[in-house]
Amino acid sequence: MNKDYKSDEMLMNAAEQAAGLLTSNVRTDDYEQMENFHQKMLDQASSKGDEDGLKGFPKDEGSAQTESRIKNEYSAQFQKSTNNEWSLLTQLKTLYERIKDDFSYTLVGAKSIRIRQIEKAFTASKIRHGRLSGETDANSWLLTNLWAVYAIIIVLGCLEVPLNNTVFMAFRLSTGETLIVSFILVLAIPILAHYGGKSFKRWSLKTSMKIKAMIISLVFFVFAFSLGLFRYTFFKAQDMYNVASVENPNVLLSDLMAEVPYSEALQSSEFWVGFVFNVILLLVALILGYISHDSNPEFEKAYVNYHKNRPALIRKRDELVEKEARESKAVGQKSKYAIYFDRFSRIERLHATLYDYVLNFADYTEQLSQEAISTYRSANMKSRGSGSYPSVWDMPLQKVIRLRLPNPLSSPLKDVS
Length: 417
Fold this sequence. Notes:
By secondary structure, the protein is mainly α. The protein is built from 15 helices and no strands.
């Protein structure tokens, strides 16, 4: 698993020893050294406060050299006291990343790391877009099962195929070509309407969404009207053809269609029934597009990855783990993934213990440093008498210890049993 296994074990044993001392009830040397240092600083702060106060120093905010020195000395003592813990934290982080990199080249590792990436992306997206509950404003089932949306659109579109197929024969195409044109038209327009619904859902995001939504809406209403008009004209001309062809066999259906006035169609219930049917079909597609998509595309992607792709990855990953465990058990060995899991868990536990200790010790040092500064100010003002003092002394003390700690570790095999 790792060429430096022996040195890695030495590091973790050293961390185990340090963590054991830190979690015991015995007061650590770090705290004893800090307390001794603190007593000396209190004496110095009091003495220096008396001295500066008699001189009327500091006279303004920019001359508080003593307070800056106090802050720097506490920061330096903090670094000195926690030097070993900082070193172990850095080494454990490096070791963790090396094992994690090694693990990523396995099938289980690649899937586990991808799962973690999906989880982190979803968490970040929730925070970034103010969706802390993690809920989507779309229909969650349709959002994660878009195949159902397209299935409904296809079924609805197919309802028009027989009627359109009859009408498109007027173009004198072959039967196969006519059928293909009918299918393409009745599917393409509802699918376009579906994307129109998605654009309406994201109306407020940017101007392009507004333009897209309006153009698509205009297109499909014009289409519904034109198709209804064409159907009415075709069937009306066909009735005329059945009569006229008896007297004139050379009469053309297309010529008769040109003679049908459009105003007549607008007064016909047949036209309006066809038009309304088309509009309903397109509205259903538009509504499906609206309710099956989230108003934010970035959050939608993160949501689908988390609620659809992540469970699938977990199932595949767990199947691989179980298979490897069975094979290892058959030959009397420990699963390599179980070994990875043990090492990740051990490093995380040690890192968390040291991490918490450094944070708590920083808070403790902060309290002591502020006590020393308060002691200096109190002695200074007592010696100063009724003289003025820096206005900044009336404000809360600023933080002395500023830490830049690495984030707590999170094993890519965290949820593997």
